Amino acid sequence: MQPRNLLIGLVLGIAIAAGLALALRDSSEQAVPRNATILPAGNTLPDFALLDQDGAPVDKTVFEGQWDVLFFGFTNCPDICPATMTVLGQAKRQLEAEGRQPLPRVVLVSVDPERDTPEAMARYIGYFGDDNLGLTGELAEVRKLTDALGIFFQKAGGEEAAYVVDHSTVVLVIDPQGRLKALFSTPHTVADLVHDLPLIMASGS
Amino acid sequence: MKRIAAALAALALVAGCSGSDGPPIVATDVVVTAPGAGMPMAAGYLRIGNRSGSDIRITRVSSPEYGSVEMHETVIEDGVARMRAIPVLEVADGETVVFERGGRHLMLMQPAGEPRTITLNFYSGDVLLLSISAEFGSAME
Fold it and tell me: What ipTM was predicted for this assembly?
């Protein structure tokens, strides 16, 4: 082989190897969730009886028929709850802007049903986007859902009428069959959600 | 999304502190946010820098537009957010303490009007009055 041909072959070989490496890296980044833990076999949700933001009774079938991202918080929470709901709303809008389908519904389950009436939930979830779902109701019914999903919450200190509630910060993903499919740990970021939610929804329901 | 937001007048002085160049206590980036107007609670965020030559302690925060203001801190441990009051905040000389989302924050309760001012009360008896201009709109976006 002529030296010139050898050089051309070498350059081509390096270019092909580099291209393959890049493709493999991109493929790997696309396929692996950045934050989410995807559950291979989703747990079905327990029976519960709560109210949506319109005051209508709902049970576990409210989670059937669409993908849902759930956060557990309360409307009097000044810091972590609005920050998380904002991130969820922004992620959904970005997925929509990218033309992604399906789009998940954002759901807030109140861990302070004592103060969170359906009216309060309706006003609150409306601040973070359209078509959100808010669930509240009897404390014992909320406990049925949170206990089954491993969500902790407990009323904590604060002035009598302005108490706060300690609560889990995990964001859960429920598949259209109403099964727990994945979870996101803190810190919650729009970038992680936008990257991982399509992977979760593509992993099957 | 609606919000209550407040951008601060950049800085103010605490009288009687050191005579070094620049203001001895500087408060910047003050923002008061709530998901919407009329919410019973809002959060306040800011940065407090201390160049007074000595440590300072903030013992109380108040606002004429809120019935109650408390310093709080959100701590996430084992995936659980716990919010606790900060009775007294110490800012060491030369340090800057940051109030930010997911960490230290002001909890402003019982709103009685559009937020305009916040007062930081120091152990020394000095006060720092922060002027706020309120906005409604995109703080949470």
Answer: 0.77
CATH annotation of B5-135: 2.60.40.1890
> Chain B partners of A91 at a C-beta cutoff of 8 Å?
none
Which two three-digit tokens encode residue A160? Answer: 């009598």
Give the model's confidence band at B13: pLDDT under 50 very low, under 70 low, under 90 confident, else very high. Answer: very low
Domain ranges, ordered by start, for chain A? 1-31, 37-202
Taking the Cβ of residue A152 and every Cβ of chain B, the question of whether any pair is shorter than 8 Å is answered with: yes
Give pLDDT tens digits for A43-101: 889 999 999 999 999 999 999 999 999 999 999 998 999 999 999 999 999 999 999 99
Domain A37-202 in CATH 3.40.30.10? The answer is yes
- Residues of B within 8 A of A89 (CB-CB) are 1
Q: How many CB atoms lie within 10 A of CB B98?
A: 12
Q: Provide the residue ranges of all domains of chain B, joining segments of one domain with +.
A: 5-135
- Compute CA distances A62 → A47, A117, A185, A192, whole Å: 11, 18, 24, 26
Q: How many CB atoms lie within 10 A of CB A58?
A: 16
Closest chain A C-alpha to B65 CA, distance in angstroms: 16
* CA A164 – CA A103 distance, rounded (Å): 32
Beta-carbon pairs below 8 A across chains A and B: 89
B37 and chain A in contact, CB less than 8 A: no
pLDDT tens, residue by residue, B42-65: 899 999 999 999 999 999 999 999
Residue A23 distance to chain B (closest CA, Å): 34
